[in-house]
Design a protein that fits this description.
The protein is mainly beta. Helices cover about 5% and strands about 35% of the residues.
């Protein structure tokens, strides 16, 4: 209060995975006007660089509102306070704290919800980009979005569109308060939202509400139409409320379930997307949380074309299938103590080799480098190979096989099963997943010695089908990079396409199946779609 000097500065620093939140509680003698005489400035840096100013308040008079909350993009912030000493009643009161750095963006399948800029209602940090995709749970539904708050840095004078910070919804950019009709809009079944902030001035940001709706169904989502102008909540009916008529409970049985709804062991259905293994018991019988000892790295501590060496123990479900003098032939994934899953095409006989005979194969688990001699590596003989009865070699449809090991394998830090995604689980387009294997490091090249990993994205089925002239069936999914450069290759066949779910648990979304060449432009990798074959896997592995 009533400071004696004309200039002050505070360098704020917090631990490295945190960002600085600055809360200015009282500010007299400084107002957001002309910056000639005195001002308070916050920088996203420890030096007062003009291109790093997050916010600045200038001029005289009390600043309103009395509280401002700023967030840095990194773990440092500089605050400078300069003033004209003759000014009476100069007051600055503020505090700062370390808050965890948030990752923004994501994919949501939901009937309704909210979305906001990072740290809302605090000012969003500078220098960030976030992308969200929101999807209605059923294709017949659309999404309506309501922008409740939008306070974003104004565009440059003379600029025709938002060029500094912006909120982008389905390709349309917003950076200032809009009229009511623009703030309330209807979209299709899926909406893409992006948020960008440059290195300079930040603001409060945005807050959006969204909900799924249908023009044809009067009932709310998750309700059943009982006729007689009545709608009843599906959960109530499925839990014994028969006020919707005697047969309404049939809507809970599997035959009446929507696609992408999860079926509990007792036959009841859940409308919640991807409920299994999310840590919450959603089925009355608890069956959605039963088979969850899978898909985790236990270590405390990337052939793939365009990948890199994987750390030992990072992909503990990866197995190498080897055959005598031929060495490594295919990859596989551990799904239980006795069972591995791989691609059917690995077991088609050639003129000289009987790949279909279980006795010729050995599975190596916990392996990092091919041919490594280590007591951490588990080796098992194969007792039987079950190739899917509908496997079609000519088009690689139903390209899946199960391998039963002669003896069960013991789980450890280096050997763990991957989770099988149930039929109802959805892996959205754009989801980042990983492929792993010891396959060729480029087309027609030698195999990798060290396990490789590479990041790929799931690609829209209809786009992939166009690229491959309608060869993609509903038992296939595509992943990769349309620009090429990253892909699975010969020797990766049968290995996993692993994607994360809630709680950082890994799921086997796909099995490396086929593709035209390796890592070619507009020729993504094609994988066997595990959700489409989940019931067959479960039936055959008990």
């Amino acid at each position: 209060m009533n400071p004696k000097k004309s200039f002050y500065q505070w360098r704020l620093r917090v631990p490295s995975n945190y960002v600085v939140r600055l809360v200015v509680t009282t500010l007299h003698g400084v107002a957001p006007e002309n910056c000639a005489s005195h001002h308070l400035s916050a920088y996203d840096f420890l030096l007062p660089l003009q291109n790093k100013i997050i916010a600045r308040w200038c001029g005289s008079g009390a600043w309103s509102p009395p509280v401002i909350r700023l967030t840095s993009s990194r773990n440092v912030m500089l605050l400078t306070f300069s003033l004209d000493k003759r000014e009476e009643r100069n007051i600055l009161k503020a505090h700062f704290q370390a808050i965890p750095k948030v990752m923004c963006g994501g994919h949501y399948i939901s009937w309704n919800g909210t979305l906001s800029s990072p740290y809302y209602p605090s000012y969003y940090p500078p220098n960030i980009d976030c992308s969200w995709i929101i999807r209605a749970p059923l294709p017949a539904y659309k999404l309506s979005l309501k922008i409740l708050v939008i306070q974003i840095q104004e565009k440059s004078p003379g600029s025709s569109k938002c060029d500094k910070d912006w909120l982008e919804i389905e390709g349309v950019r917003y950076c200032k308060d809009n009229s009511e009709d623009i703030r309330n809009k209807e979209y299709g079944y899926s909406v893409a939202i992006n948020f960008h902030s440059d290195e300079l001035v930040t603001h409060k940001g945005f807050y959006i509400e969204y909900k799924a709706f249908s023009h044809t169904d009067r009932c709310e989502p998750e309700q059943l139409n009982c006729g007689d102008e009545n709608c009843k909540h599906q959960y109530k009916i499925c839990e014994g409320d028969d006020s919707c008529g005697e047969d309404s409970d049939e809507n809970c049985s599997y035959k009446s379930c929507f696609p992408y709804t999860y079926k509990c062991l007792n036959g009841k259905c859940l409308l919640k997307p991807n409920p299994e293994c999310d840590g919450k018991r959603d089925c009355a019988d608890g069956s959605d949380e039963m088979n969850c000892a899978c898909g985790r790295h236990l270590l405390k501590k990337n052939r793939i074309v365009g990948g890199e060496d994987a750390k030992p123990g990072k992909w503990p479900w990866q197995a190498s299938l080897q055959m005598g003098a031929h060495g490594h032939v295919c990859g596989a994934s551990v799904i239980s103590k006795r069972w591995l899953v791989s691609a059917a095409h690995c077991f088609s006989d050639s003129d000289s080799v009987r790949y279909s005979a279980p006795s010729g194969w050995r599975a190596y688990m916990g392996l990092h480098t091919i041919n490594e001699k280590s007591n951490h590596v588990a080796t098992r003989s194969i007792k039987r190979i079950i190739v899917h009865p509908q496997y079609d070699q000519s088009i690689s449809d139903y390209d899946i096989a199960l391998l039963e090991m002669e003896m069960p394998v013991f789980f450890s830090e280096l050997v763990q099963p991957i989770c099988l995604p149930s039929t109802s689980r959805v892996f959205l387009y754009g989801t980042v997943c990983y492929i792993t294997g010891w396959g060729a490091i480029k087309e027609n090249s030698h195999l990798a010695r060290t396990l490789q990993e590479a990041r790929v994205r799931i690609i829209n089925q209809s786009i992939c089908n166009k690229l491959y002239d309608d060869l993609i069936t509903s038992r296939m999914l595509c992943a990769g990079n349309l620009n090429g450069g990253i892909d699975a290759c010969q020797g990766d066949s049968g290995g996993p396409l692993a994607c994360t779910g809630k709680g950082n648990r890994w799921y086997l979304a796909g099995i490396v199946s086929w593709g035209e060449g390796c890592a070619r432009r507009n020729r993504p990798g094609v994988y066997t779609k595990v959700t489409a074959l989940y019931d067959w896997i479960r039936q055959n592995t008990n």
